[in-house]
Specification:
Layout (H helix, E strand, L loop, with lengths): L1 H20 L11 E6 L5 E7 L3 E15 L2 E4 L13 E7 L1 E12 L6 E22 L2 E21 L5 E13 L4 E8 L2 E7 L8 E11 L2 E5 L3 E14 L11 E15 L1 E7 L23 E2 L32 E2 L5 E4 L11 E5 L11 H16 L4 E7 L6 H21 L7 E5 L12 H7 L1 E7 L1
Parallel strand pairs: 13-17, 19-20, 21-22
Antiparallel strand pairs: 1-2, 2-16, 3-6, 3-15, 4-5, 5-7, 6-7, 7-8, 8-9, 8-10, 9-12, 10-11, 12-14, 13-14, 14-15, 18-19, 20-23, 21-23
Length: about 475
């Protein structure tokens, strides 16, 4: 008993020194890095991934139980305590070990010192064995054998070393499935006689503990760029109310638990969009080297990131060169002060204009209308008589569809314009095209009128 008390004091001193020595301005890690995805229109989708706030999983631990206090059991449990033939025997309790499994969840907001944990031990087997010796030929053995459910809410504090944290809270323990018995062993005439007696006093059904511990999120796995996995070892101390109080006993248990948790957490993903640069000229191959992307933890094969600079290659269409001219009719002002020509009957092309082709009556329509062809006829004539200009064609969609569908609709609208200009003798080497999907609306997508305006092709002249 003295040895157990000394070990407990030493452990508390070591843990206290460790907590004081660790810096106090800790916070939960961000775990951020970037993924780059090149879309079919050559734009780059940038995904900024960081740890999520919530983690869920399972845990297991090995518990070393140090029994503390006085355990008194009647010598003859079949007789009342008031009987003169009965007396209370002091039992010596033995320390024991048990294993438990359970479910766990954690809330650890990024950049915060504080978080929370909740563990639920699905099934914990508890054994307390004690002995009382009347003589070498006559002994008693008490076996307290019961199961329990344990709910453990905790507060978590994050230290400056990434992943290292302390936690403390309560254990709400419910005992059930009691199979406790008192075993009397006698040796008579060379024979061993064993008798099992049922005790009239059962262990406490409800018990409240306090616990304090520390853990370290050591292992990080990345699955499909959406979920992280943590494997966390931990150590905790538990002490609380009396386990067994029958017959004026006050038996209690001090627990030292060590184990690990396996936790899964969905990433928080913020997206950014880098537009395709139609004026970019690719340097010699020896110069364009994609920098290596930092990879944290263990990556499963097949989930490598796509390099950013793949999005900067130009989409150039090959064929021949010609010349012609045009004249002006109708122009509209847009909010940014850029002049827009909306498919008029007669137009004149001005290099400072942005030409907008509208009139797609449904989200899935991508073909040119007669009014659009009239505009493109004038544009083709301008390009033929002004060989210093190139044309950039961008197809847009409303938001009525998936990202892939809207991207494809934008691409097909832009490609229809490209094909028509080529049919009008414009050299394909002077044409650049891209899909802007539904990322750049100019009107409200919640109304049909707004969606009709967003279904469009924008054309720019670049010298």
């Amino acid at each position: 008993m003295i040895f157990n008390e000394m070990m407990k004091k030493r452990f508390v001193v070591v843990l206290s020194v460790f907590l004081i020595a660790t810096r106090a301005y800790a916070q939960a890690p961000y775990g951020s890095f970037l993924d780059y995805k090149v879309l079919p229109n050559l734009d780059t989708l940038i995904l900024n991934r960081s740890y999520g706030d919530w983690w869920f999983g399972a845990y297991t631990n090995l518990s070393y139980n140090i029994n503390i206090g006085k355990l008194l059991i009647p010598e003859r449990p079949y007789l009342p305590l008031s009987d003169s033939l009965n007396r209370l025997l002091l039992h010596e309790s033995k320390d024991g070990v048990n294993v438990l499994f359970g479910l766990t969840g954690e809330y650890s907001p990024k950049g915060s010192h504080w978080g929370g944990m909740l563990r639920f031990a699905i099934l914990e087997n508890r054994f307390v064995r004690s002995y009382s010796e009347l003589s070498k030929e006559h002994t008693y053995a008490l076996l307290l054998d019961f199961k329990s459910l344990v709910l453990s809410p905790s507060v978590r504090y994050n230290f400056s070393i990434e992943g290292l944290h302390a936690f403390g809270g309560l254990d709400l323990e419910y005992f059930f499935g009691d199979k406790s018995r008192l075993q009397e062993v006698e040796y008579k005439d060379g024979s061993r006689i064993v008798t099992d007696w049922v005790l009239s006093a059962n262990p406490k059904r409800l018990r409240l503990n306090l616990h304090l511990g520390a853990g370290w999120d050591l292992l990080f796995l990345d699955i499909s760029k959406t979920v992280r996995v943590r494997a966390k070892p931990f150590l905790s101390l538990h002490y609380g109310t009396v386990v067994f109080s029958g017959y004026s006993s006050n038996l209690n248990t001090f627990h030292i638990k060590g184990g690990f948790s396996l936790l899964f957490g969905p990433d928080e993903i913020q997206s950014d969009y880098k537009k395709y640069d139609s004026t970019y000229v690719k340097p010699p191959e020896a110069i364009v080297q994609t920098p290596p992307t930092t990879k944290r933890g263990i990556m499963f094969s097949g989930f490598e990131r796509t390099p950013l600079f793949a999005s900067l290659e130009l989409s150039v269409v090959p064929t021949s060169e010609v010349y012609a001219e045009a004249s002006l009719t109708k122009e509209d002002e847009i909010s940014a002060g850029i002049k827009i020509v909306e498919t008029p009957e007669k137009i004149t092309i001005n290099p400072n204009q942005k030409i907008v082709l509208q009139g797609y009556t449904r989200s899935d329509i991508v073909s040119l209308t007669p009014s659009m062809r009239n505009t493109l006829d004038v544009l083709a004539e301008f390009l033929l008589v002004n060989p210093d200009y190139i044309v950039v064609v961008e197809g847009h969609s409303d938001n009525q569809g998936t990202l892939e569908q809207n991207t494809e609709r934008g691409r097909l609208r832009a490609q229809a314009v490209v094909n028509y200009l080529i049919s009008r003798k414009v050299n394909p080497s002077r044409i650049r095209s891209a899909s802007r999907s539904s990322f750049y609306p100019i009107a409200d997508n919640t109304t049909e009128e707004g969606r009709r305006k967003n279904r469009r092709v924008e054309i720019f002249l670049v010298k």
